[in-house]
Amino acid sequence: MKRFHVHLHVNDLARSIAFYSKLFAAEPARVEGDYAKWMLDDPAVNFAISTRGAQPGIDHLGIQTNNAEELAALKARAEAADMALLDEGATTCCYAKSEKHWLTDPQGIAWEHFHTLGNIPVFREAPAAVVETATACCTPTPRGKPIGIPVKSAGSSCC
After folding, report:
1. DSSP-based three-state secondary structure for 117
2. Residue 107's closest CA among 56, 147, 54?
3. 72-82: string of b/e by CB count within 10 Å (b at 16+)?
4. Residue 72, CB half-sphere, CA atoms under 13 Å: how many?
5. DSSP-derived 3-state class of residue 77
6. pTM of the prediction?
7. Cβ–Cβ contacts within 10 Å for residue 19, how many?
8. d(CA 147, CA 140)
9. Angle at 43 between CA 41 and CA 48, to 5 degrees
């Protein structure tokens, strides 16, 4: 079974946790100082919020798989469709270790396909050498989101 993933940026984490807990009739499965996540079965969704964004709204969408085989099938489908793909492989983000790859839709919305391998105590384990600068149009942000991955469409070279 695959699970739909939505990650939103929010301004007020506590107010948003209260709202979404009422909306879903469930408490978050994980809460940190800047992050909360609900792992809902009905509907099957991994819904996350964080205060790490520049402005409120959709950060990214995704599909979480139960196993490596499902993740490989999603990657093969994207590659067969000639979609630009950023393969992060094993990485850390959102208090978890995962295998993942990213796509960007024609509007620039990031889509993540991932398989969670385990939890970690920090939002992301970043190499010490990561510098938060954009050096080229198609360079992803240090958080790993594929901002600027070229979308395969007529006349599009990047973003």
Report:
1. strand
2. 147
3. eebbeebeeee
4. 3
5. helix
6. 0.68
7. 13
8. 5
9. 80
**Distance from chain centroid for Cα 132:** 18
Whole-angstrom distance, CA of residue 134 vs CA of residue 138: 9
Determine the distance from the C-alpha atom of residue 24 to the mean position of all C-alpha atoms in its chain, rounded to a whole number. Answer: 20
Contact 102, 111 (CB under 8 A): yes
39, amino acid identity: M
Say how far residue 16 (Cα) sits from the centre of its chain: 19
- Give all domains of the chain, ordered by start, each with its CATH number: 3-119 (3.10.180.10)
Amino acid present at 36: A
Question: What single-letter amino acid sits at 65?
Answer: T
- pLDDT one-digit tens code per residue, 46-97: 999 999 877 899 989 998 998 999 999 989 988 888 888 888 888 877 787 8
- Residue 96: in which H helix or E strand, if any? strand 96-104
Residue positions counted in the chain? 159
Is residue 85 a contact partner of residue 101, using CB atoms and an 8 Å limit? yes
At 139, list the tokens.
């360079």
